[in-house]
Request: fold
Amino acid sequence: MKIKPYDKLTFSDDFMFCKIMENEEICKKVIEQLLDIKVGKVQKHVIQNTFSPTPESHGIRLDVYVKDLDKVFDIEMQTTQFPAIEKRIRYYQSVIDIDNFEHNQDYSELPESYIVFLCLNDPLGGALPVYTIKNIIEESPSTIYNESTHKVLFNASAYEKVQNKHLKAFLKYIYTQETDSELTKEIQSQVLKSKGHQNWRAEYMTLEMKIHEEKKLSLAEGRALQKAEDAIIIAEQAASLAEKDASIAEKDASLERMNKEIEKLRAQIFELMGKSKIE
Reply:
């Protein structure tokens, strides 16, 4: 798949999304509009940060990771359908908890966490614009199970179903690039300004070349693997034929031995028959 040119990037593209969200004020406004909450004084604000709980574990890269005094937020832009997104979110939650839980801390000190996925298309197939996911007690749904975690998936393609006008405008912007609110106009202004940002352009071009090289390497490795698999198949087929040939040869040798034995018996019989006539 061809990589999109820098000048064609929109806020929905991962690179541009992360660059615009580096602006702390815009980032706070986006979070507050999505979740309808107030974000306190930001203590940590990192973009595309990689987390690996242990050297052997599977690492993750979070698009936008923000912490205020008592809450932590992970905001992800998802432009394609992602298989097993539910388990991906489950793993993200575990890594975020580990990152926020230090030695000798009490469990009650774990901060409230929000994992948000901004999806261009329906991530769960329910035709809803928003999926708010919470754990419940099946035997008693009315009993509150408050682990202070929130997972929210937005389906931008269903923006017309949203009642809140600000959220509707934001999801519409993600899906169509049309600006119907102050926030979306502010974001779009930053996107347009980015076209003249030479450092970002150079960074994107470097990333583009890296992705291109990785694809070439992956393709070469794929071809090499295919050749190796083909060689194994040919070797197995040759071994099977050789085994069959050996079996046939063994059968031929056995048949030849039997024919020789028959000839010997036949000669002995003729010899006996000859002696009988003389007597």
Observations:
- The mean pLDDT is 85.
